[in-house]
UniProtKB/TrEMBL annotation:
Ranges of residues in domain Thioesterase: 8-223
Family: Belongs to the thioesterase family.
SUPFAM superfamilies from the UniProt entry: alpha/beta-Hydrolases
Organism in which the protein naturally occurs: Streptomyces cupreus
Stated name of the protein: Thioesterase
Amino acid sequence: MTTDPGLTLFCLAHAGGSAHPYIRLAADLPDHITVVPLELPGHGTRVREPLLHGLSALTEEAVRQIGERRHEPYALFGHSFGSLVGYEAARVLTAQGSPPQLLLVSGRNGPTEPLSHRPFHHLPDDGFVQGLQRIGGLPEALLAEPELLKFYLPAIRTDLKVVETYTHAPGPRLTIPVTAFAGRKDVLTDASSMAAWSRITTGVFDLTLVSGGHFFLQEPEFRAALAARLTRFAATASRVPAARGAVARAVAE
């Protein structure tokens, strides 16, 4: 009988978000999953550090934090803005010969799809907040605290600029499984555009729709779906041990 070496799940938050909510995620996931939230500069516990501008710098920081753990079984999960950073990090790590075994994304249409809304990151604060409210891009708890919202606006604006100016760069497709999640009431996504994540990989793709709008990560339905997907992945990997090693070594064509 072999011992499952486990899987490290690196998590990336939405625009302006912190790593904190992901710490609680571990309680609803299988025991063999180790949740490691990635905290970006200017966010959460690193709020006093300068914000990073541009997707390349953000991707480089995510790859740096993963570090040597890339040589162990790991997966990447990102929500909304975090999906883009996670995807681009997966591309870099794949090119370096240490791809994740699984990429999980949520709350963001496929990277080859056009932006789902008219850009507003450049607007003054009042118009910027109105834009966030219009697309459901602010948690209700933050809207209820005007002073706290004002404090977070620079990070949200900087991250949203990355999303709104993103252009998918041509390149090799990933070779790993990709799993996507979307809220049925999320105005920033639609089922067909979420399905477009299948275009960025030669691996298996699956899409799960859950109740709620853009911020559904705390919902029991999503957490159960995420746990089930990770359990299925572990079962598949354990049945085909050679495939696990092959995926870990694969480099996109």
